[in-house]
Design goal:
12 helices; five-stranded parallel beta sheet; 41% helix; alpha/beta; elongated; 5 strands
């Protein structure tokens, strides 16, 4: 596989004759656009005992200058990096990425120590050796994996795998009674330093798990793991179940509080809306009431108009003074039937006016 060129990893120089993206004139640290194609492998890296090596060709180690300058495609620089790679994380991947990109044409071989060596020299691991082998195999920067790698590199091992350089961080690694297990590699001029990724390591991850042990134990108990599988005592198991119930009650109470707050908020909004509508209706009602029954309201005008009409109906209009007077014809005299005398008059009428007109019977009636 042809590795990517090192120019992609180096910071790009400033371009004075053009502008960058969005009008920028400096392209420092901005990666170039890449074509839409897959850069990763489609299969995991093979193990060293599965790779055939042509021992007919003599092994001549390349110098550092030759490696930096670039080697032919059929003669890549064989770089070796080893480790435990327990709980494979981004720090491991970045270290292998740096080792892969040390030179323009690099073939990266990664050695993974077995459980026996690791438990003897470093301590117990979370993942077993097969899991760690498989994790390293699926890293895109790895070309070959060495199982059961040695703790200390010997000249025989370096010659067997035809290793040109050994990549590791420059911090002295004290182990197996040595202040630095890579001391002889450095003295031979075969050491290629890489940089550690701060803030991430297997020890840091284990520290997080130990710190939050109760949380993870409770979570796994909920998922169906038994207390025996988690190495949890009977008392702790009951304690975790009780805590889980308490947390559920707390969550329910919290949910009820949130729902009640939402309900109260909705009621307040509705009440404010109703009050506003009531105020509008009350203003409208008061305005209509004043318009009808106020001092200058419609009812007062209606009463005045009705009073005027009643007065007109009760007292008819008098004849105008300028109208001509007409002589009224005398009222016909009335006589009692079958009588030739005048009707008797009451004493009061006689005393009131003795000269009252008598009721005469006309000549026609006599006839």
């Amino acid at each position: 596989m042809e590795p990517p060129t090192s120019s992609r990893l180096n910071s790009r120089k400033r371009r004075k004759d053009g502008s960058g993206p969005n009008g920028a004139t400096e392209l420092d640290g901005i990666p170039p656009k890449m074509s839409r194609r897959s850069l990763g492998l489609r299969e995991p890296a093979p193990f060293s005992d599965e790779v055939e090596i042509d021992y007919s060709k003599p092994y001549i180690r390349v110098t550092y200058e030759e490696a930096v300058r670039g080697t032919p495609l059929d003669r890549p620089v064989r770089v070796y990096a080893d480790g435990i790679f327990d709980l494979f994380h981004s720090g491991h991947a970045r270290a292998l990425m740096q080792a892969k990109n040390l030179f323009p044409n690099t073939y990266l071989i990664v050695g993974v120590c077995s459980d026996e060596l690791t438990h003897n020299f470093k301590g117990f691991t979370v993942m077993n050796e097969n899991e760690r082998y498989d994790a390293v195999q699926h890293c895109r920067y790895v070309d070959e994996v060495v199982r059961n790698a040695p703790w200390t590199l010997t000249p025989e091992f370096l010659a067997e795998h035809r290793i040109d350089f050994v990549a590791h961080d420059d911090i002295p690694y004290s182990s197996a009674g040595s202040d630095d297990v890579y001391k002889h590699i450095k003295e031979a001029g075969m050491f290629a330093p890489t940089q550690r990724t701060e803030g991430i390591s297997t020890s840091d991850i284990i520290t997080r798990i130990v710190r939050d042990y109760d949380v993870y134990a409770r979570r796994n108990l909920q998922r169906g793991y038994t207390a025996k599988e988690l190495n949890v005592s009977f008392i702790n198991e009951k304690k975790y179940h009780l805590q889980e119930r308490v947390d559920k009650v707390k969550k329910r109470v919290k949910d009820v509080e949130e729902k009640s707050k939402e309900f109260v908020q909705k009621v307040e909004e509705k009440s404010i809306d109703l009050i506003q509508k009531w105020e509008e209706k009350s203003r409208e009602f008061i305005g209509n009431f004043l318009e009808m029954f106020g001092p200058e309201g419609a009812l007062k005008h209606m009463l005045k108009e009705g009073k005027g009409r009643m007065l007109q109906a009760i007292s008819p209009k008098q004849s105008p003074s300028s109208s001509p007077t007409h002589d009224r014809s005398p009222s016909p005299t009335f006589r009692w039937p079958f009588s030739t005398k005048t009707p008797p008059s009451s004493p009061a009428n006689l005393s009131r006016n003795e000269s009252a007109v008598t009721y005469d019977i006309s000549e026609d009636e006599e006839d």
